[in-house]
Amino acid sequence: MTSSDVAATLPQACDFTVFGGTGDLAMRKILPALYHRDLEGHLPPDTRIIGVSRSEIDDDGYRAEVRAGLETYLAPEHLDPAAVERLLERCHHLCLDAGSSEGWHLLHDLLKDREHADETVRVFYLAVAPRLFGPTCERLAEIDVVDERARVVMEKPIGHDLASAREVNDAVGRVFEERQIFRIDHYLGKESVQNLLVTRFANTFLEPLWSSRWVDHVQITVAETVGVGGRGGYYDHAGALRDMVQNHLLQLLCLVAMEPPTYVGRENVRDEKLKVLQALKPMAPEDVDRDTVRGQYAAGLTAEGPVPSYADDLAGPDPQDAPDSWTETFVALKAEVRNWRWAGVPFYLRTGKRMDRRVSEIVVVFKEPPHAMFPGSEGATTPNRLHICVQPDEGMRLHLTAKEPGPGGIRLRPVSLDLSYADAFDQRSPEAYERLLMDVIRGNPTLFMRRDEVEAAWSWVEPVLARWADSSERPRRYPAGTPGPYAAAALLERDGRAWQETDQ
């Protein structure tokens, strides 16, 4: 798509307001994403970026913080002095406390007292604690800045269970219509995730094999090498199931398992994802006991050297403050999509912190050939596998069995056909937030979660949370720098399968 094509789909004016405008998410992800889009000429010509926070700084002070953030989180070769100055000129700051009623007239005046205010798209990005989502939206309604062109962006977590998710959705929904609410999951903006849809639906060779007739099982892994870091306060009340499975992993499962929509856009994709969530086999208590594994990292050795346990990370510098936490930092589970296409095909999901590698990937393992066609051959056929790497090295790898060159008998050897986005496309791969923020400005909700999706995911996850809460069994300990607790490997081994690693 050329710059002129992009510009034709954009409004002429946009006020992009970031609540939490001096926070980590704004400086690390949101503002660098807006910078890259501005650098390539994709932002609406008349765009303002309004940071809202409790910091008592003026516009110049905010611009200095934004400049420092860009220099910290962007590679030097991506910093164009003219583009940096252009973005900084767009930036403004307001000192507001979302929990207070004071000072909101300043935001009203800034948004209303501008040229073509009635034609300006207003984006309100809630990069704040979820408990402030509802109150912030109520304040926006009170100062009369929410019109039909306004949009609100909500970061996860949306609630900590089904009831609280409904409360958040109700509070925001009293101010914004559903079409104006963009619940962001940055995984859905990654190039490899979007390319999964293209691979399935723009090519004919793969879709006929995409069913229980030919697929043995599917694995989805999101592994991190880092610990909880400075997020311990939040994480200890969330855990891996709420933090990763309820949103990221289930969204990836939906994209793998969904039926072909009439076309990819707007509500069609979200309708099909909802059907997958509704088709997930409910987790009874005995299913949770049998088909889920939760773990917590202990002290161990990583590539960076020795690292402390989860409890020690929570305690910080004083080991005496280490809590006796039962929060899981690792989850592995077996799910099943009960519909015509996928009945009987297990979906294995796992995610964890302080693991032996950083990778997010989907592996579709196909069934073995029904008959051995090469008697007397050396080697053995292996199941065909499609690896879709979401991060860090975006791409795809198709594993096949081939004949090793040479005279005489047939020697079978696994080989792979590789597609690396970095090698195949001679251009920078945009960050997920770049795509998603532009979709918000355009008003395209395709890659965002709808309310019924969020609540369907919570409905499926809640029985697992409830069973774990009633259990007397602690999360299984695993040393940092390992693939997780052995029970996660046993989850597949009892089915005659094994986790597929990237280098296999």
UniProtKB/TrEMBL annotation:
Q: A Pfam family matched by this chain, by name?
A: G6PD_N
Q: Name one GO cellular component term.
A: cytosol
Give the catalysed reaction(s), semicolon-separated. D-glucose 6-phosphate + NADP(+) = 6-phospho-D-glucono-1,5-lactone + NADPH + H(+)
EC numbers for this chain: 1.1.1.49
The Glucose-6-phosphate dehydrogenase C-terminal domain, residue ranges: 197-500
* Keywords attached to this entry: Carbohydrate metabolism, Glucose metabolism, NADP, Oxidoreductase
Residue sites binding substrate per the record? 186, 190, 224, 243, 353
Q: Where NADP(+) is bound, by residue? A: 54, 156
A GO molecular function annotation here is:
NADP binding
According to its UniProt record, in which pathway does this protein act?
Answer: Carbohydrate degradation; pentose phosphate pathway; D-ribulose 5-phosphate from D-glucose 6-phosphate (oxidative stage): step 1/3
Gene3D superfamilies associated with the record: Dihydrodipicolinate Reductase, domain 2, NAD(P)-binding Rossmann-like Domain
InterPro entries, A to Z: G6P_DH (IPR001282), G6P_DH_AS (IPR019796), G6P_DH_C (IPR022675), G6P_DH_NAD-bd (IPR022674), NAD(P)-bd_dom_sf (IPR036291)
Name all Glucose-6-phosphate dehydrogenase NAD-binding domain ranges.
18-195
Please indicate which superkingdom the organism of origin belongs to: Bacteria
The catalytic residues are 248 (proton acceptor)
Matching entries from NCBIfam families are given as: zwf
Q: Which HAMAP family match?
A: G6PD (MF_00966)
Similarity annotation: Belongs to the glucose-6-phosphate dehydrogenase family.
The function of this protein is: Catalyzes the oxidation of glucose 6-phosphate to 6-phosphogluconolactone.
Q: What is this protein called?
A: Glucose-6-phosphate 1-dehydrogenase
Organism of origin is: Nocardioides marinisabuli
